[in-house]
Amino acid sequence: MSEHTHASSSETAATETPRVVEGRFECPEGLVVAVECLGRSYPTVIGEQALTLKFPSTPEDPSRSQSNLVAPESHYAYPPRRTDSDHELPDWGSISHFSAGIPQSARVAMVGFTFTTTGTDEDASHTCEMIEGDLDNWWERASMWLDIYSELNLLRHGRRKPGILGARYSAYLQHADGKVKPVSWTSHGIFRFPRLIQLPSLEELTTSFRAAGEGAVLPQEWQYLRDARSWLEAGQTRRAVIDGCTAAEVALTNQLDRLLRSTDTAVKSELLLRCPGVAELGKLVRALGGITASRNRLEEKLAKVRNLAVHAGAEPSIDVATLALEVAAEAVEHARPLAQLHSTI
Q: Taking phi first (over 0 means left), then psi (-120 to 50 degrees means alpha), and beta for anything else, what does residue 39 get?
């Protein structure tokens, strides 16, 4: 693996005057945000460095033909755009959805960042190296929170096949006039129009970046629920209901642990041994005064679906799997409400 030097050092002495360091990094595929989130700054910590993320803005007069996002304001003046393709300005993203001609959401392809330093050039280089080294871990934490707050599915389990399998399929034939032309036919491919999804709000985007900067990760039950939703989005319903039921079981077990906090350890262990499945765990939670999904929903809509998937290899329908995950989410939300998660960071 070759090492790349991004800048040369000409100044080695520290200075009392703060200097601005600014840069940018590419976003992983799939970061779509509401237009209200564009053109804003978000504080976070990456590589132990407190910095500010800067999102691109909408174009001055956005339209379907003029939808490229505009780079955020920079501290320094940069050379104008050159004509050769090797020095094209970066792609900051584009408007992804219009409604009545008004932009509603955008795909963000690039994010700017900035921080100040009073150290030497070598110090700044070291800090930038630390940021680069932590970017993947930081994004993994941020994407956890964003997936739970929205339907972005940044986890992308079992990535879906293209909407048209033959999108790049073509054929050519030499005609009677000697010219080679494309063969035309009526395509029977099925095109899947992208569905509208729930996007993170401005507050949720801010909270997710802050949580990632503070090193916060989702509790285990919420991570399993995220996995389940991603499998469902990919159409892999068997995996979805298995992970969904696991999320509910972990959530209910943790809920019982809190409800039985003052109970003798031996008694607690015996009670849990008598709860072999999610329905029994839910029954005990309710008996102890806790709130969770009903026994009928836990047993009929989740546990039985999961058992068929595990023991019979059944692939439930999308509707059945969707309902199972709704029940799992209900159990997880009652056990550990999403709104309270960040209060524990």
A: left
